[in-house]
Amino acid sequence: MTTPGANAAIRVTLTLLAPSLVPSRQHTACFLRSLIKKVVQQAGAGHSKTRMKDLPGTNEVHAGTDWRAAIAAYTKPRVLQVLALGFASGLPLLLTYSTLQAWLATVGVRRATLGAIALVGICYSFKFVWAPLIDRVPPPLPLGRRRGWGITIQILLIAAILALGSCDPKHNLPRMAVLAVVVAFLSASQDIVIDAWRVESLTSDQQAPGAAMLQSGYRIGMLAAGAGALFIASSSGWFAAYATMAALLGLGLLVFLFSPEPKVPAEKLYVAQSVWQAILHALYKAVIEPFRDFMRKPMWLVILIAVFLYKMGEAMAGVMSTPLYISLGFSLPEIATASKIFGFFSIVTGALIGGVVTTKFGIRRSLILCGVLQSIGNLFFVLQAVGGHRIGYLALCVTAENLTGAMAGTALITWLSSLCSPAFTATQFALLSSLASLSRTVVASSGGVLSEKIGWVQFFLLTSVVGLPALLLVFWVGPRDDDSQDKGKVAI
Q1: Quick one: fold of 298-492?
Q2: What mean pLDDT is reported for the chain?
Q3: What is the CA radius of gyration of the chain?
Q4: Could you read off the pLDDT of 261-299 as tens digits, one per residue?
Q5: CA gap 309, 442 in Å, rounded
Q6: Neighbouring residues of 30: CB distance < 8 A, sequence distance ≥ 6
Q7: Three-class SS string for the chain?
Q8: 143's torsion region: left (phi>0), alpha (psi -120 to 50) or beta?
Q9: Residue 387 backbone dihedrals phi, psi, to 5 degrees
Q10: Which residue has the higher pLDDT, 368 or 29?
């Protein structure tokens, strides 16, 4: 039997189409109506409209937690496990980007080829395309939906990194390119599983600390795959560097091996009457239902706009930060030192502070507070542009931008986690996180043209206010921070 939502969709669609149908096409319209109705009946048959209960990890983070409890959340075993998974998530990124480019540059590979290597990162932007498969298809290893896929993907990822490290770029460059794409694809797939496991495993009060640990672990993984891999390669060779990184991925593998599978309420058993009906139902549940489920949320379109705009100002400023430093006369070693030292510790510290703030004040208040601080952080670029070549200003600018940006990032990740339904965690989080990063790749790319036309000071003043509309939308549609509601059980 067709679901009421499907029938409503058919009626609305046909109502809109009716005025455009001339009498000679009435039979065609009737045929199309019958065909559409039959397809939806086949796809939605047996689909229950009953909503699954929200898990503790997908409920709102409520305000009112005292500071001591907010900080103590970082000592919970599940939250510490997220740190290891974040490390495993950040490790492969640079192995197919800057570290790989450094390797190829040392053997004389053309710069055009080095630039093309960056295209493998497109896998991270489109991971939502295959996220429904990870959400719905049973994993090869029967260890649960998240653990089974997590262990399978990480085993393949370790093998792919070892294969990439064993190549000789002078003789196997095409093979290296293919393996780099494979590593990036598996890394993006790993991110899908890790995000879903984190959202489903942590209680509501652990979501913000978990988001902070994810960011911190991710940055530590990037540091290991960047500076760490280069250091190992300089002394022991490139295969040793990549083999070490593959071994370090075992930290994430241990988490999936020894941690329990997240508890998700079982769905109603569906019995297909034919193979065709089973295929249609699988596609319906994997592709259509995650969108329909999200669109049931009040003001869902405004939520998406707020997610897209929230990090736009920070993204615009971040893209043009290095060109600003260079234009002011800073050398590359000066920029690298400030970014590696002050930037790294500022991001980790900001992420952890953001987790405490979000746990203490709740999601909506933290999104607004951290968003305001993020805008203020962009004003330090104005100070840098006016002050010129001053090392102290450079350190202050890098620290402020990374600290406030990481705080806002933790609050945003916590909000995105709260928006996901347990039945479609992997798909919905992949979609929301891709939308959140879209402003960095689409809108922020125009920063160069804009800064040339209006100048550095005006440009960075603009970046500090461009995110303010998102804060108004968050105030309008953000989750209400109600400390009177249940905060969920504390996980062991």
Answers
A1: Growth Hormone; Chain: A; (1.20.1250)
A2: 80
A3: 24
A4: 888 665 554 444 555 665 666 677 767 888 888 888 888
A5: 12
A6: none
A7: CCCHHHHHHHHHHHHHHHHHCCHHHHHHHHHHHHHHHHHHHHHHCCCCCCCCCCCHHHCCCCCCCCHHHHHHHHHCHHHHHHHHHHHHHHHHHHHCCHHHHHHHHHCCCCHHHHHHHHHHHHHHHCHHHCHHHHHHCCCCCCCCHHHHHHHHHHHHHHHHHHHHHCCCCCCCHHHHHHHHHHHHHHHHHHHHHHHHHHHHHCCHHHHHHHHHHHHHHHHHHHHHHHHHHHHHHHHHCHHHHHHHHHHHCHHHHHHHHHCCCCCCCCCCCCCCCCHHHHHHHHHHHHHHHHHHHHHCCCCHHHHHHHHHHHCHHHHHHHHHHHHHHHHCCCCHHHHHHHHHHHHHHHHHHHHHHHHHHHHHHCHHHHHHHHHHHHHHHHHHHHHHHHHCCCHHHHHHHHHHHHHHHHHHHHHHHHHHHHHCCHHHHHHHHHHHHHHHHHHHHCCHHHHHHHHHHHCHHHHHHHHHHCCHHHHHHHHHHCCCCCCCCCCCCCCC
A8: alpha
A9: -75, -25
A10: 368
Question: 480: which 2 tokens?
Answer: 């209400």
pLDDT digits (tens, 9 = 90+) for 430-445: 888 888 877 766 665 6
Residue 165 in contact with residue 243, Cβ under 8 Å?
yes
CB-based burial, 26-48: b 16+ in 10 Å, e otherwise: eeeeeeeeeeeeeebbbbbbebe
Residues belonging to the chain: 492
120: how many CB neighbours lie within 10 A of its CB?
21
Which of 99-113, 222-236, 271-285, 349-363 is predicted with the least confidence, judged by mean pLDDT?
A: 271-285
Which of 340, 476, 311 is closest to 398 using CA atoms? Answer: 340
CATH for 65-264 is 1.20.1250.20
Neighbours of 139 (CB within 10 A): 18
Using alpha carbons, list the distances in angstroms from residue 16 to 13, 19, 34. Answer: 5, 7, 16
Q: Looking up tokens 């988001």, which residue turns up?
A: 211
**pLDDT one-digit tens code per residue, 393-414:** 999 999 999 999 999 999 999 9
| Confidence at residue 108, expressed as pLDDT on a 0 to 100 scale | 80
Q: Is the dihedral of CA 386, 387, 390, 391 positive or negative?
A: negative
Q: Which residue has the higher pLDDT, 163 or 438?
A: 163
Which tokens hold the place of 185?
A: 């694809």
